[in-house]
Amino acid sequence: MLMSTRPCLFLVLAALAAPPALAQDGPTPPETPRIYIFDNGAIRGLNPELFNFSADELAEPDLVNISYLIAHPNGTLMFDAGAVPDSEFEGHEGPVVEGTMSATQPLRPQLEAAGYSPDDVTYFALSHYHSDHTANANDFAGATWIVQEAERDFMFADDPDAIINTESFGELGDAETVILDNEDFDVFGDGSVIVMATPGHTPGHQVVAVTLANSGTIVLGGDLYHYPEEITTGRVPTFEFDAEQTHASRAKIQAFLEMTGGTLWIEHDIATHAQLPRSPEYVD
């Protein structure tokens, strides 16, 4: 079912529906929001010139793949879905390698270690449609999908030409969906988890801002940046959908971080995530 953009109406409906959902069997909701971090492998051997850098300008040219589960007192939001599908691990020993991407473990057991299954996910959002973020997206088609209209239109175009694997997310086409028109969305209605529109890398790229009781505001940055050096130099990848939009989106998020005193987690940055716990531990 498609629920078009009017988030305020949706929030009223969601609030009315929340108590019965929480009354069902399932994980015990946390008292305050928390973020679980899942290791989805790595991307190695990319040419830094794709990102408008030379090799000696980057402290670490390789990338990590990460996805997140935000657990909230009123539900859950899964953000991104890995680069290598869990099905590739079936009957396979050791790491799975697909071109420049590799993974040492599937996503679902990490989700289960935190006490959740895909059926326990209330909302699902992708930062964007690139295939290193969508591998297990179909597993979350039972959740309510939060997506920008421009992104959804591109994903389900007749012949999208991009870094994309349409089979990995095709089932989202039948999911209950909140469609946003280049706008932000307060997921649980209390300001603690906000999907923020940041177009440019793709037509409807988005990030998620999470306000935690102990760690303050965290912005899960998707591919707004790939490397910290992009922040200091202002450079953008060569394959941006719209570089001008990217610059505007970065300015929006930097202003938000300054206003909130928040911290940006660059989703592909190895150094950022080397300091963070993995499921079943969490950040709160």
Low-confidence stretches: 1-23
Taking all Cα atoms into account, the compactness measure Rg is 18 Å
Average the pLDDT over all residues and give the rounded result. Answer: 92
Ends apart, CA distance between termini: 33 Å
Overall SS class? alpha/beta
Task: Give me the number of helical elements.
Answer: 6
Characterize the overall form: globular
CATH top level is Alpha Beta
Number of strands: 15
Return the CATH topology: Metallo-beta-lactamase, Chain A
The overall number of domains is 1
What is the annotated CATH architecture?
4-Layer Sandwich
Proportion of helical residues: 10-25%
Structure overview:
The protein has 284 residues and is of the alpha/beta class. It has one domain (2-275): Ribonuclease Z/Hydroxyacylglutathione hydrolase-like (Metallo-beta-lactamase, Chain A, 4-Layer Sandwich). Helix content is 20%, strand content 24%. It contains 6 helices and 15 strands. The protein has helices at 7-23, 108-113, 149-155, 229-233, 243-260, 270-274, and strands at residues 2-3, 34-43, 63-72, 75-79, 96-98, 101-103, 123-125, 144-148, 177-180, 185-186, 193-197, 206-212, 216-220, 263-265, 282-283. Strands 1, 2, 3, 4, 5, 6, 7, 8, 9 and 15 form a 10-stranded mixed sheet that branches. A 5-stranded mixed sheet has the order 10-11-12-13-14, with helices on one face. The chain is globular and about 50 Å long. It starts with a strand and ends with a strand.
